[in-house]
Structures are given as C-alpha cells and as structure tokens.
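Regression test case RT-17, inverse folding.

Input:
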C-alpha cells in the first residue's frame, strides 16, 4: 500500500507539472532520474572535481609567480628607464619613455567595403567598420527543480523570440519553437533571417602595421593597437539605396515582415585632434619594441611595453602599471578561489543527491546538506588557496610566504577540528561511554548500602549519654570479619 501511494502521488505531481507548463508552446520539459543524478555526481566527484582543484592550484601558482616577477620587472624598469625628447633618438638598447605626437606621414589610407568603397577613405592608425542587421533572435532560459519523490529533477527550458540588431548573421533554421506564439508575434509567421546583403559591408577593423610617434617607429602589435578608434567618420556621399542619420547609414528592407534584413553601418577612426601619446619601450635603432627585464630568481622573460594617450610622467606611468598588475592578481586570485570552492563542493555532491532521494523530505534535506557542504568546504578552499600562494611566496619572498602558510595552517587545523568534533557528537561521546562500568546506566547515581550488606549493627539510642552508647567493633573484629561488598549504583 505504501508503494502504490507513493507511485500515485508521483504521477499526480508529474501530471500537475505537465498541466502547468504543457500549455506553453515555447517550453521544453526534460526529466532526470535520481539514479542518473547520483551517477553524474559520482563522476563529478571523482573525475571532474580533482582536475578542477588541481587546475586552480596551477593557476594560483602561476598567478603568484607572475605577480612577483611583474613587480620586479616594473621596479627594474623604473630604475633603468631613460626619458627622452621628440627631437632625436636615444642609444640603441635602452628602455626609453617619451611623450610625442603621432605623425600622419607614413600611415596607410584605408577604404571602406561594399557600396561605400567609392565614398569613404581614411588615413590613420586604423578604420573600424561596425555593421548590424535587424534579425530575429532566439533566447532560452532553463530552470531546474528537484522532484518531490525519487531524487530526480525537472528542467524547464523556455524559448523567447525578439527582433534585435546583430553584428553577424543568425541562422533562423535552427530555432526550436518556430511554431510558438512568441515567434509569430515578434518575428512573424514563417519569417526567416535573410543572408547578409552584398551591398552592406561586414563588421571589420583594419590596422596600420606601424606608425611614427616623434622620432621613433612604433609597431602595431604592442603599441598602435592601443590607440582607440572612436572618432566617427562620414562618407563623401551617401550610396544609392542607403539613408543617412548623422554618422549612421541604414539600408532598409521592404520585402520582408517587420523590416527583417535591414542593415545599419557606422565607421570610426583615430581622432586626429588628440595626437599626443606617451610610449614606453626598448629602442632598437629607432624602432620600438618590448623591453625584457633582466633575469632574476625564478623570473625570466618578463617584458614591458606601453602606449597611453596623453602626457604621463615617469612615476605616474609606472605607478599605473603596478596598480594594473595588482588588480589582475587580485581578480585571478578571487576567480581561482571561487572555482576551487566549487570543486570542493562537487566532491561532496553525492551526499546532496542521496539526501534528495529520501521520500517527502528529500529536496528540503538535500538543500540543507548542500548549504552545510558549502559552509564546510569554504575553509578548505581558502586554506588550499593560501597554501599554494604561500608556497610560491616562500620560495620567492619568504617573509610574506611564511605568513600566508601560517594562515593556511590555522584554516587547516580549524577544518580538521570541526570534522573531529562533529564525528564525536554523532557517535554520542564514545570515550565517555567506554569509561563507564559494563551494564551500568549513564545517569545512575550512587546510593547507601542495604541492611543485608551492613549486617547486624548495635542500635543507637539518641537519648543515652555518650558513655552508654554501644562500643564500636574493635579493629581485630573488623579485620577478622569478611569484607562486605556494597553496591555502588541504584537499580
């Protein structure tokens, strides 16, 4: 009877779910059994989680080494940099820093593509083309809930459709719910995204291979790529079929519903009104390249090379480089810690799934187990992160590393102590129970011996004077009398 009632209730829950979501024509419902979830959790715990933890340990170690070596390279560069002017180059091989103007001479002239090729050219660092097509796009959102019985889960995926400007072509033939009301209302019944028109240029960025800043030739890779292309450009004339709205050009589509297939284009180049730039790099006979810091303990091959808009002093520039390196170090530490924490939680994922399989209270109990797992594994992840970082710093900077390892040891001791106390609490104090006599109740109290145990004793008269009280047994009689064993616990 109990089994049949559980089956009937599960069927009722399933039918209720289907009735609630089945009416929506833009949703998909998928179910995962408790056995599948348990198997997946074991695979995750024994295969995926250890690899994730090891990967994050490697990332933490690499990040700490990068942080130390970057700071050393920046400090060494600050000591060796030579500030030069814009009239003549410094000695070859030196790390130079200068603030000069970008020269137009020697930069290539770029031409726009498609219909704009006869009407738009630009000479500068680069030409950026941003093109977008008005298309129907599909968005999906999934929500997974635990089943009340069986430990399984139900995933409901909802598909919605809307029209957006997108910079690349969207293949509408792969949409999941083209017969849904959402698709018909927002995109149009039977609508398809057209292919990219040949008259419209595609999103693209063209760059100059090199340019001249002051007396130096600066390559694109490490320097000119940092010049922003944010100045809007306009064509000499508007191509046929296009409409101009400020710096934006639109090619409208009239043969498709809801204007699907319309294209809008914008062009940008570097701003010639802001040509002052500060550059840091190694001078190689008038051509700048990245400067390599001298090798030190566990640090080799770390380079410096920077271009910033405007004028920046030496101290300001190097302080900004150190700040950026510190921010990157902090972000990578946080990411590695969070991912490692997730890895530790995945190790104990089977406990949560097993709790979900308990009838009636399974989902609630599983959520509580997951919360406990997250709280319990946080110190382990924190300690492991500090341990890896501290190990690297012990080798490279012992004082800081020893402090980090000390914190790691405290976290580890706290974690082990917490586990030990919990185990003793679950066992009900085994050490205290083992010290008690066999067969004795823990709460039993000692009591007075019985009359049979005491034997015949002379009666004491309360009103009699002291010299008339009965004498106590002599020591010889007490020694000759057999010992009486008194019970120490009440029955």
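Golden output:
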């Amino acid at each position: 009877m109990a089994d049949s009632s559980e089956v009937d209730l599960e069927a009722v829950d399933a039918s209720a779910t289907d009735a609630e979501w089945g009416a929506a024509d833009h949703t998909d419902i998928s179910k995962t059994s408790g056995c599948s979830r348990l198997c997946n959790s074991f695979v995750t715990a024994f295969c995926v989680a250890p690899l994730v933890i090891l990967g994050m340990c490697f990332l933490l170690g690499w990040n700490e080494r990068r942080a130390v070596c970057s700071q050393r390279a920046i400090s060494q560069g600050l000591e060796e940099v030579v500030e030069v002017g814009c009239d003549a180059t410094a000695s070859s091989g030196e790390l130079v820093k200068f603030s000069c103007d970008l020269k137009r001479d020697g930069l290539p002239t770029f031409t726009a593509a498609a219909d704009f090729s006869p009407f738009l050219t630009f000479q500068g660092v680069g030409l950026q083309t941003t093109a977008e097509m008005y298309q129907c796009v599909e968005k999906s959102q999934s929500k997974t809930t635990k089943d009340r019985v069986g430990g399984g889960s139900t995933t409901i995926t909802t598909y919605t459709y809307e029209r957006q400007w997108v910079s690349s072509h969207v293949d509408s033939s792969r949409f999941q719910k083209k017969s849904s009301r959402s698709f018909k209302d927002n995109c149009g019944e039977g609508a398809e995204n057209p292919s990219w028109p040949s008259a419209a240029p595609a999103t693209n960025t063209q760059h100059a291979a090199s340019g001249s800043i002051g007396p130096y030739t600066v390559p694109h890779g490490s320097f000119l790529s940092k010049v922003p292309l944010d100045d809007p450009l306009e064509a000499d004339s508007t191509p046929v079929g296009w409409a101009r709205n400020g710096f934006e050009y639109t090619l409208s589509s009239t043969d498709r519903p809801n204007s699907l297939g319309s294209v809008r284009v914008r062009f940008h180049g570097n701003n010639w009104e802001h040509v002052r730039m500060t550059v840091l790099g190694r001078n190689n006979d008038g051509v700048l390249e990245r400067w390599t810091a001298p090798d030190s303990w566990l640090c080799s091959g770390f380079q410096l090379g920077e271009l910033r808009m405007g004028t920046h002093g030496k101290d300001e520039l190097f302080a900004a480089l150190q700040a950026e390196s510190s921010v990157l170090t902090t972000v990578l530490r946080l990411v590695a810690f969070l991912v490692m924490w997730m890895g530790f939680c995945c190790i104990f994922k089977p406990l949560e799934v097993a709790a979900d399989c308990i009838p009636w209270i399974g989902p609630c109990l599983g959520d509580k187990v997951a919360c406990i797992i997250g709280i319990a594994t946080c110190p382990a992840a924190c300690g492991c992160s500090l341990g890896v970082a501290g190990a690297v710093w012990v080798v490279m900077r012992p004082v800081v590393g020893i402090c980090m390892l000390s914190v790691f040891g405290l976290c580890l001791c706290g974690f082990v102590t917490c586990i030990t106390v919990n185990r003793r609490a679950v066992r009900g104090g085994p050490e205290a129970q083992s010290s008690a006599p066999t067969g004795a109740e823990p709460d039993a109290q000692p009591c007075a011996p019985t009359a049979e145990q005491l034997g015949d004793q002379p009666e004491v008269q309360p009103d009699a004077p002291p010299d008339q009280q009965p004498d106590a047994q002599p020591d010889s009689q007490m020694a000759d009398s057999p010992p009486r064993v008194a019970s120490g616990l009440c029955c």
